[in-house]
Amino acid sequence: MKSKFIMIVLSLGLLLTGCTKSSQSVVNSPEDALKSIESGNEEREIHVYGSYKVSEELELLIFRGVMNDQDIWVADVHKVDGQWVAKGIVQMNGPFKESDDIQTLLLRDEFGLPLDYELGYIKSNVPVPEDLHVFEIEGISDWKIWIKEI
């Protein structure tokens, strides 16, 4: 009787441990996927400035906090088999010095195929075209990040 009780307690313990580990690895939101970009980032505080939903399977997130607290990034986060995965990130620390008022940074993915969106910078004192979705970054007043769905 005592051995059966011990086996039941051990089985429940193993079951609970497995369930806990399983639920920790599930990525149910695009924000959770950011923590998987670089190992060791689970403890960092990520500040998301905004997101843009391109489709049910693709969301773009503008954020700080993964590599350090200064760099600004845009993550391309896809839903794959029911879980969100950060497929790639682009560093967005500001436009090039001698750039136009609106600068396009990203037009194609790494394989040269068209993306569902374009990405770039716009100076703060420039009127925003209707087809751009603009995101302001805390502490930056002279430029903003824009996303355009194609």
Summarize the structure.
With 150 residues, this protein is of the alpha+beta class. The chain contains two helices and eight strands; from the N terminus they run ααββββββββ. The strands form two sheets. The chain has a four-stranded antiparallel beta sheet with strand order 1-2-3-4. The protein has a four-stranded antiparallel beta sheet with strand order 5-6-8-7, with no helix packed on it.
Helicity range: 10-25%
In percent terms, what proportion of residues is strand? 35-45%
What class would the helix/strand composition place it in? alpha+beta
- Output the radius of gyration: 21 Å
Overall spatial form: globular
Following the backbone from N to C, one meets helices and strands in this order, namely HHEEEEEEEE
The N- and C-terminal alpha carbons lie at a distance of 68 Å
Number of helices: 2
Largest sheet at a glance? 4 strands, antiparallel
Number of beta strands: 8
Tell me, rounded to a whole number, the average pLDDT. 79
Strand order in space, largest sheet:
1-2-3-4
Poorly predicted runs are 3-23
Secondary-structure blueprint:
Layout: H1 2-25, H2 30-34, E1 47-55, E2 58-64, E3 72-80, E4 83-91, E5 102-108, E6 114-123, E7 133-135, E8 143-149
Antiparallel strand pairs: 1-2, 2-3, 3-4, 5-6, 6-8, 7-8
